[in-house]
Design a protein that fits this description.
It is a single chain. This protein is about 35% helix and about 15% strand. It is an alpha/beta fold and about 425 residues long. The strands form 3 sheets. The protein has a 7-stranded mixed beta sheet with strand order 4-10-9-8-7-5-6, sandwiched between helices. A 4-stranded mixed beta sheet has the order 1-2-3-13. A 3-stranded antiparallel beta sheet has the order 11-12-14.
């Protein structure tokens, strides 16, 4: 614990002013303590105790170009010289919007905001306005932000979630207001969704096209295509939540990767490499409802410095060579982790994209939805990530590994070496 003692002390001090010493519940309870950082550089974070850690949190996903890339910093500095906030339009936001529309298959129009949770709410409002319906369908294990109407069945326990064909909506927080307009289904089951949509009262189906918040679970063959078809037949708006997958798994997100185009899509994280930007993109007829009687606002929407970060980030991500690098290095990292765990006789599933993948311990059966993802031994994996910290590698306790262009071959080699050393130790315990 001595290696992270200063972080522990500062978190305890901060708890006098901040609940738990942090500003997001997702930062609570990290072992051995939530860490306090001084700076980031490339693939590394430097904490207040002087530790240099290879970072696979990457800000929970945004830092796809690594920490402090000069192209992004230079663009932001230049924009700041012209001003911070105008309550008006700038040329740079038009460039950012054009880039999104050029890269994303569903994007005829774009609206920028500050957080993914906001953009989700805008998407649902558009769907309700366009259809005149009120019900939204979401899926177990999918996360669409912390607002009351979508924080349902994100991580329910087996004694809560009910039968497969009629899941129970489980609130994700105390103090959450019940919302009968939100219904929950099990993902990757087209028959269940098709039967529900036949009632003709569903305004929107919202989903992660890949379950990146739960084990990085891929859609089964034909599932996304089937969802697209039944939503079109029912007059239901299909919304992809690409806050994680957008601009990370392909330049145009998961919809480009799988060749299935939603009506609306929500983006965030990798869009601005750490600056607080999200956006809603979609069909022109739907998006143009904002010009009519659908309200969408925000003081910080399209803040100029953040828009400069979008332009710099997407300019890099628009290049195929960027994804070639991410694919090559990420594949090598996945294979190295898989080999290290196998050599140590640790049963594990290493699955996903080279740019965002998941490691789950104790997984023996196929993983196709939230329920069978629960077979993973979460406690064993948390102990594993804690041990990795002491070897200079910071990996998310929930199993996700994010990769950046700053993770060079040497960094990948060092990571695999650390994983191998910890795995061998775990096998002896």
């Amino acid at each position: 614990m001595e290696r992270f003692e200063k972080s522990k002390h500062l978190i305890a001090e901060a708890a006098r002013y901040l609940p738990g010493g942090v500003n997001s519940n997702f930062r609570l309870g990290m072992r051995p303590t939530p860490l306090v950082f001084e700076r980031g550089e490339g693939p590394y974070l430097y904490d207040v105790d002087g530790n240099r850690l290879i970072d696979y949190y990457l800000g929970m996903g945004p830092m796809i170009l690594g920490h402090n890339p000069q192209s992004v910093l230079s663009a932001v500095r230049e924009q700041l010289e012209s001003g911070i906030l105008f309550a008006g339009q700038t040329a740079v936001e038009q460039v950012a919007a054009r880039l999104v529309c050029e890269m994303v298959p569903c994007a005829d129009r774009v609206r920028f905001s500050s957080a993914g949770s906001e953009a989700v709410q805008a998407a649902l409002r558009l769907a309700r306005a366009a259809t005149g319906r009120s019900v939204a369908v979401k899926f177990e294990g999918h996360y669409h932000g912390w607002f009351d109407n979508v924080l349902w069945s994100v991580a329910p326990s087996p004694d809560q979630y009910g039968p497969v064909d009629t899941p129970m909506p489980v609130p994700g927080s105390a103090g959450q207001v019940a919302d009968e307009r939100t219904e929950v289904l099990v993902w990757n089951d087209l028959d269940l969704l098709s039967a529900r949509l036949k009632r003709g009262d569903v305004a929107a189906v919202i989903m992660e096209p890949v379950m990146c918040n739960t084990s990085v679970i891929f859609p089964t063959e034909g599932y996304l295509e089937g969802v697209r078809e039944v939503c079109s037949n029912a007059g239901t708006v299909l919304i992809f939540d690409e806050v994680i997958t957008g601009f990370r798994v392909a330049p145009g997100g998961a919809q480009q990767y799988f060749g299935v185009t939603p009506d609306l899509a929500v983006f965030g994280k990798a869009i601005a490499n750490g600056f607080p930007v999200s956006c809603l993109a979609g069909r022109g007829d739907l998006m143009d409802l904002f010009v009519q009687d659908v309200m969408h606002g925000g003081t910080y929407n399209a803040q100029p410095a953040s828009m400069a970060a979008v332009v710099a980030t997407l300019t890099a991500l628009k290049q195929q060579e960027t994804f070639d690098v991410l694919h090559e290095r990420g594949t090598r990292l996945m294979e190295g982790i898989r080999r290290a765990l196998r050599d140590a006789n640790i049963q594990a599933r290493v699955a996903g994209f080279p740019q965002i993948f998941h490691v789950g311990f104790g997984v023996h059966a196929p993983v196709t939805d939230y329920r069978n993802a629960l077979q993973a031994d979460r406690e064993q994996y948390i102990a594993f990530t804690e041990a990795l910290l002491y070897r200079g590698v910071r990996a998310l306790e929930r199993g996700a590994w994010f990769l950046s262009t700053a993770h060079t071959d040497d960094v990948i080699d060092a990571t695999i070496e650390a994983v191998s050393a910890v795995a061998r130790r775990e096998n002896k315990m």
